[in-house]
Amino acid sequence: MFPIWSKSALDGTSRGFEKDRVVLDPAYLVKWDSNDPLNPQNWPVAFKWWVTFQLGMLALVGSLGSSITTPADDIIAEYVGVSREVVVLDVSLYLVGFAIGPIIWAPVSEIWGRRVSILPAVFCQALFSIGTANSRNVSALFITRFLAGFFGSAPISNVTAALGDMWSRETRGTAISLYAVAVNGGPTLGPIIGAAIVLSPHLSWRWTEYVQAIWGLVIFSMTFFFLPELYPPVLLKRKALQLRKETNNLRYYHPHEHLKLDIRSILSKQLSRPLRMLFTEPIVTCIAIYASYVYGIMYLTLEIFPIAFQEIRGWNPIIGSLPFLALLIGVVSSVGLNIWNQYRYNRISRAAHGRLIPEARLPIMAFGAVILVIGLFWFAWTAEPPSHWILPCLAAVFIGVGFNCIFQQCLNFLIDVYKVYAASSMAAVTMLRSLMAAGLPLAAKPMIRALGIGPALSIVGGVAAALLFVPFLFMKYGPALRKLSNSRLKPRGIGKLGCCEG
């Protein structure tokens, strides 16, 4: 069903083909045939779900690595000789790597495809996790954590765009709902797994990273053999090469094989595109700011929950990490809302004669924004005794629901708006949100010690309340902003020398 491409079809060395001398005839432009089995959109549904599962597991590798060491922070701080405030950098530097990585990985995916941009990076992340486990000083620890985050950001940045390659807009929301559980479940599962390792009499803190490396290598091995390429331009390029070989007709072509890949072009177009979109695309800028703050709140909980449940209530590390399950329950619970929203979106799209209506995805984001604010204020004023412990746990469920509703609809909205540039728009958002997530945990302990949990989290909730306008802004002014964005990013086609200009 899925072709095993010949070596010449993969490397562009089809016999007798000299792409600089070929006159490009539009009649021989390679496109998808009707019901083309090579088109990821036409793959069997069962196979799509198998691929979606693999992509979700790749994303879980990256997200789990961000938090699995947090229960060992006090032990690590004592071992390397730093304060408890400084050791938080093991999470923050990992997330700085998350911020920088997408600038590289998203353009790589838009040139060479999804597999090349994800799998080697996941393998390297596993290697640097082993490096962290074998660190003997603070410098080695922080450097390897940063590099693990840099490589671990590849699936986080590119998996959503890969799902857009495979699933139609009518079904993509459901797939992204399950993918979002993997991405957002990682930071909540990490502390639980890490606490179990740290309290084991037979394992040291180093095993938090060994377990992360083993998990990464297992998923890498599975996807190396079973994950197909999904990026349509790369697949059409391979199809053109195969047609030239089979027919001996050198006129078959696809624009993607004529991309300029000189250093100047890569720097000025591919690598700079996420940054340009972040600073020149109003939609990306606003979504990035809002999603970044919400994402930062998720990582803020990595520091707040241990204070609330272990330091203040006196729970041991394993019991004290269980409230993260409440956060995960909230994330999972929101899947039903997001799937319902996908069916609602389909009805609206059909009524509009099949047109994309990105704004139709946003009511659930607005709902999630309100629920998140309620959860933050609820947690702020019930985290400490005499309030019963179930109250902050219920508040954590609200935070999880709100976070995932916002997070997923941000992804769907950007894919609908930017289509072929979805990976670059995701990279821009991933970069900013990771920087926010790196910074907020550093402020948690000083802020709580100075103000207390109630006032400190009330400030966080107040900022979230001030940003409530974002989804409503896009619901009202989204179409006008989309027209402006589409005109800025419209590809310029094929130039005189047969090079794709974009």
From TrEMBL:
Major site of localization recorded for this protein: membrane
Gene Ontology molecular function: any one: transmembrane transporter activity
Membrane topology, record value: Multi-pass membrane protein
Domain of life: Eukaryota
Transmembrane segments: 47-65, 86-105, 142-164, 176-198, 210-231, 278-298, 318-341, 362-383, 389-408, 420-444, 450-474
Coiled-coil region(s): none
InterPro entries reported for this sequence: MFS, MFS_dom, MFS_trans_sf
Compartments in which it is found: Membrane
Pfam family of the protein (one): MFS_1
Residue span, Major facilitator superfamily (MFS) profile domain: 51-502
Keyword Membrane attributed: yes
GO cellular component, one term: plasma membrane
Keywords: Membrane, Transmembrane, Transmembrane helix
Protein name as annotated: Putative MFS-type transporter
Organism: Lachnellula subtilissima
